[in-house]
Amino acid sequence: MPRAGVFHQLFYHFIWATKNREALLTPTVEARLFPYIGSKCKELKYVLYAVNGAENHIHVLIALTPSMLVADAAKNLKGASSHYINKVSGLGETLYWQDGYGVVTIRKAEIPRVVEYIKNQKEHHRVRTLVDFLERAEE
pLDDT for 119-133, tens place per residue? Predict the structure, then answer.
């Protein structure tokens, strides 16, 4: 007999910083990093809504299933992305993430607003229109 599905709406807004908040996210790194994170999310069956950042941190909005651990999502994306930039991409640049991360849950209705916020990261930082709790990489 087929197993009944489980209803879920689990949306997570992650943020994590570069090691020592160094400006490691250059346009060259971003051009390879963001698509890589998209492909890694697809491989891991995370639903990616948005990825972007500023020179020293990144924002990722994903949906997970109930069987996926939030801590594993952060670990998997951080580890795979730094390994990709440092060892696979051939860019000759380095990317190291700081320990820890920030994560908040959001309601489905907030997705468009959070996606827009993530897409406009550089502008928010330039004109200082930041949402404090969405910018906390670690406590």
Answer: 987 775 666 655 554
